[in-house]
Amino acid sequence: MIDKGEDLPVKRQCELVGVSRSDHYYKPNPVSDRDLMLMARMDKLHMDYPFWGTRSFATELGIGRGKARRLMRKMGIEAFYQKPNLSGPHPDHVKYPYLLRGLEITRPNHVWAADITYIPMPRGFCYLVAIMDWASRYVLAWRLSNSLDSRFCVEALEEAISNFGTPEIFNTDQGVQFTSEAFTEVLKSSGIKISMDGKGRWTDNVFIERLWRSVKYEDIHIKAYETISDVRQGLKNYFRFYNERRWHQSFDKKTPAMVYLNLEPKGRAAA
Fold first, then answer.
1. Is 222 exposed, middle or buried (0-12, 13-18, 19+ CB in 10 A)?
2. pTM value?
3. 258 and which of 9, 43, 231, 254 could share a cystine (Cβ 3.0–4.6 Å)?
């Protein structure tokens, strides 16, 4: 798809086919078919039993605890958290205080949030980042990547700001992608206050955690996409449905788009 022999620069070729340069140059480490199968199964189990650790996974899957621990580490899964903690904090990165405690968030663009999740495929896996408006649950931007390089998170952030302006506060966990200078500089240069969850506090980003559950159970796990290109096209359709057609009981059966864009209902579809 990307041809280094072309006169067109690799950067421009990547832009035209909708992939980042980090995706193009990334060389994945081989993962056995059995491990991929186990990882996909663990991903589903983790969504149902976030409190499971190595002992429970080992017993359920018939593997040793050492193998369970290795696969959990590769996926970023930790027991007792509702979400995969896909990267720990970097010791040299600045950690910002949590600004949402006791804060009433009732209007669009007051608070945005971002998170990363693991996406299993039959022959591999990738990572998904999404940026959501907290008050409306509207998904503002998202990106897929073969690696956990911070660039795909920065690209999603820049797209959200370009299309929707800026929030007052941006909340994430303390993952290395979000504490990186490349990511925080975009926020600071845009005058956005930075908020970061305390370690292990998955409830601080609960709405985007619910998004991951919807994405996986309503799309990823039932579609079984073969390639990252298939995932990208499938998620493009799903997020359009999620924003424009999937109504929320807490919004009096309005969709995220209706709340974020202050639109009147024209028709509704239950998810």
1. exposed
2. 0.72
3. 254
Asked if residue 8 is part of any domain, the answer here is no
CA–CA distance from 252 to each of 107, 206, 257, 264 (Å)? 16, 20, 13, 12
Domain count, the chain: 1
Q: Which domain holds residue 209?
A: 111-260
**Domain membership flag for residue 73:** no
In a domain, residue 270? The reply is: no
- pLDDT digits over 91-124, tens only? 556 788 999 888 999 899 999 999 998 898 877 7
Given a cut of 70, whether residue 267 has pLDDT beyond it is no
Q: What's the confidence (pLDDT) of residue 46? A: 81
Residues 6+ apart with CB under 8 A from 183: 150, 153, 154, 157, 177
Query: Taking Cα atoms as reference points, which of 46, 18, 96 lies closest to residue 212?
Result: 46
CATH classification at residue 163? 3.30.420.10
CA distances from 218 to 148, 177, 233, 239 (A): 24, 27, 15, 11
Tokens for 203? 């409830």
- pLDDT of 136-160, one tens digit each? 999 999 999 988 889 999 999 999 9
Whether residue 59 is contained in a domain is answered as no
Mapped onto helix, strand or coil, the DSSP state of residue 42 is helix
What are the beta bridge partners of residue 194?
Answer: 170
Residue where the block lists tokens 């993962």: 31
